Every structure is written in C-alpha cells, then in structure tokens.
Amino acid sequence: MLQLDLRMKPPNRSLQLALVGALAFGATPAYAGWHLFGAKDKAVTARKQVAVTRHVDAIFLHGLGGEPTHFPLNELTHALGALGTDLSIEAPWLRPVRVDSEGVAHSTGAHTMTDQLARARAAIDAHEGPVVLIGHSFGGKAAIALAKDRPDKVAGVVLLAPSVKMLYSYWKNLTGERGLPDKAKVTARLAAHEQWLRTERAHAEPGSKAERGMTGELQYLATMQDLVHHDETNLELGVTVPTLHLHGIEDDAVSIHYARRFAEQNPKVKLVEFAGVDHGMHSRDGILDRAAGISMTQHINEFLKTLEAK
C-alpha cells in the first residue's frame, strides 16, 4: 500500500505570473474561481467531525495568469478535509504581475514551461517519497510532462482543464493555418513575429498603451517560443501514471473535444466532464457551481483513495 504522507509547508507569499497579450492570440486567462468547492458548505463546517483517513501532499501547478487570490486552494483542502483527506499543497508561484488602470499587465518577465518545470522538479525532489500533482490549464500540461519524466516520484495527477493543445491554438490564431508544422518552421515564424513586434514597439510612443500592450505580447510570445522546445506534438501523449482529468464542456480556451481525444489516447486517464463549466472550472450559475463543486471534490477524493490503496 502506497502511503502518501509527505508534509510540506505552504508558501509564505503570493506570487502571480503574467499572462499579457493573451486575448490578442485567442488565449484565455487561466485563473479559476473555485468557489465551486464550497468552503461554506455544511460538509465543510462539519470537518472536525470527520476522522482523517489519509494524508496527501500535492504540488499545484497554476496556469497562465494564475494566482492564489483567484484560485483559493484552501477551499479544496477544506472540502476534502470534510471527506477525510488531509491535503497539503505546495504551490511554487511564478513571477508577480500587476494590472494597471487601463488593463495592461506588467510583469518581471514571461512565464515559461521551462521555468515551471524547473520549479516543480525542485519541489518534487524535496520530498522523500511520491507526490500528487494538481495542474490547471498550462500547469496541467506541465504536470503531464513531469509525470512522464518522473514516474518514480509522481504517484498520480489531477488535471483541471489542461492545455493539451495550447501551441496548436496559438499557431492557428497567429498564422491562420491549421495543424502544427515542424519545429524549424514554428521557430522561424515566431522569431519573425517577435522582430515585427519589436519594430512596431520601437515606433510607439514610450509609455503609451500601445507600447505597453506590445511589451505584453512579447512576454506572451516568449512563453510560446519556449513551449516549442518541449515537444508539443507529443507532450499530451504517453501518460504512465494514474490521472484524473476534470474538464468543463463550456471551456472556450481548451475544447472539450481535445480533452476527449487526450483521454481516448491515454488509458491511464479518466476524464470527467462537467456541463456548464468553463476553463476556469466555474460557471455563472450558483446552483450549478455548488453541485459541480461537490462532484469535483468527490471525484478527487475517490481518486486519492485509489492511490492510497496501491
């Protein structure tokens, strides 16, 4: 029986990474309003009456634009606690960002897959035993890669609307072409676009919204350029550890059709679909939010129980 009793203190500061210029390329900020998990639910208030039956340490990998204030992980831990699971989450947040009064994001730099993988590997290595990875959107893609890379240290993965086709969508919006050509062509096209952006920015009025907006686009472009080097065409394939994949049918950033194809190609993946739920894993319907949140929590809890039994 696998014992997941891997304690780790939560981060002592909140960091947010930049997603800038995303809307220009058809991406959606991947923050989640997880009031779904219902911290005020009666089951949560009764947590003290439930005996803890398992201890699980997890590493959470957030998406582009993710931050603790938009993804209150404590709600998930509280909801699982009501079901007897003591979930301790380490979240290696990347690069702070702020949004000015005109809606333009400013960051210390672009968030890349290389950055996220390096920080997550460091967190994984800090444990003596296996951990569970929880990844949302871009972070879900990173979790898949880490599980393939470190099956000895990753007991299981929980995917929340993972961006299994992120570069495909970016390429289509940038070029109008369907499908993804070879790496050399992608690299050359993105380099040309970077040069164009830098030239246009040089002619813009310093400090103007246009100039700041193009700076944001360059940061997002750097994320895509880095993603090319992580074998995008195969990154979503070959999952070798138990994986729970939760995805909203109304996701307008990563189509449910991609999620279904991903699950079909990977026997280790269990896909659970939620009607009326979007990429942020929430909806605008309060009643639906509560029902979906309870269901998600139950699925995650059952998944963690199966890992414990292995």
Secondary-structure map with pairings?
Blueprint: H1 42-45, E1 54-61, H2 73-81, E2 85-90, E3 97-99, E4 105-107, H3 113-125, E5 131-136, H4 138-149, E6 154-160, H5 166-175, H6 183-203, H7 209-228, H8 232-235, E7 243-248, H9 256-265, E8 269-274, H10 286-308
Parallel strand pairs: 1-2, 1-5, 5-6, 6-7, 7-8
Antiparallel strand pairs: 3-4
Helix pairs in contact: 3-4, 6-7
Explain the overall architecture:
By secondary structure, the chain is α/β, with parallel strands linked by helices. Helices cover 41% and strands 15% of the residues. The chain has ten helices and eight strands. The strands form two sheets. The protein has a six-stranded parallel β-sheet, sandwiched between helices. A two-stranded antiparallel sheet has the order 3-4. Strand 7 (243-248), helix 9 (256-265) and strand 8 form a beta-alpha-beta unit. Helix 3 packs across helix 4 and helix 6 (183-203) runs antiparallel to helix 7 (209-228). The longest helix is centred in the last third of the chain and has 23 residues, at 286-308. It is globular and about 65 Å long. The chain starts with 41 loop residues before the first helix and ends with a helix. Residues 1-34 and 39-47 have low confidence and may be disordered.
In summary, what is this structure?
This protein has 310 residues and is α/β, with parallel strands linked by helices. It contains ten helices and eight strands.
Distance between the termini: 5 Å
Strand content: 5-15%
Tell me the radius of gyration. Answer: 19 Å
Secondary structure class reads alpha/beta
Our count of helices gives 10
Beta strands, count = 8
Low-confidence stretches: 1-34, 39-47
What profile does the largest beta sheet have? 6 strands, parallel
Series of secondary-structure elements, N-terminal to C-terminal: HEHEEEHEHEHHHHEHEH
Helix content: 40-55%
Tertiary shape = globular
Strand arrangement within the widest β-sheet reads 2-1-5-6-7-8
- Average pLDDT number: 79
